[in-house]
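Data deposition worksheet. Section B asks for the primary sequence of the deposited chain exactly as it was used as input, without tags or linkers unless they were present during the calculation. Section C holds the resulting structure in token form. Section D is free text for depositor observations; keep each observation to a single sentence. Incomplete worksheets are returned to the depositor.
Section A, Depositor: J.P.
Section B:
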Amino acid sequence: AGAAAGGGEAAISAGRPYGGDGKTAAAETSRWLAHAASWGYVSVHDAPLATAAAVLSIADGDQGELFFYIADFDSGASGVSEWNASLTLSQAGLNATTGCEALSLDPEDPRCAKATYSGVMRKACCGAQTKGKAALFRRHPAMASWPEGHNFQVYELAVSDVWIIDGYGGAATFTGKEYYAAKPRHNVPSFPPAKGGAAAERAAAAAPPP
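Section C:
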């Protein structure tokens, strides 16, 4: 799976600065959410495929790649090499330790992180296929025994942009390039923001408890 796979969990910061560093922190959280999630809601937004949506198992690569294992008859992709799609994830879908229920948050609460990753879904090829299959089978061991006759294939969502809300103050949006450049880290926004902007917010987050 992702960068934190195989050795501990992604780091958790004490507070996400509001201001100049907000987008970077949001991108890090989007990488964390993609790594922590094992399933998500995938929507298709393209012809000649019919508009459709499905719950799919996922696994991320160490560079933030989003991999799926899809039967051709499930994807409706026979003869179609790629299509526009989006993946929606919610922190509410994680386990009791990192999910929103651990903080008694309703899934619709802004502090319960949710993100939509938009881009192009395509069959993985070459090294990406090998990497994706390894990541998927590591995260979802049962996949190794799925029927060969269903023609399961490794797909990858090439992310072009991300929308995420994980706290008060509205959503953040950023490019796929910014998503892939970020490191997986669960930044928990603090509210209200500290006076003095991002620098003061960082100082407050780093300060020892009273």
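Section D:
The longest helix spans residues 22-36.
The chain has five helices and ten strands.
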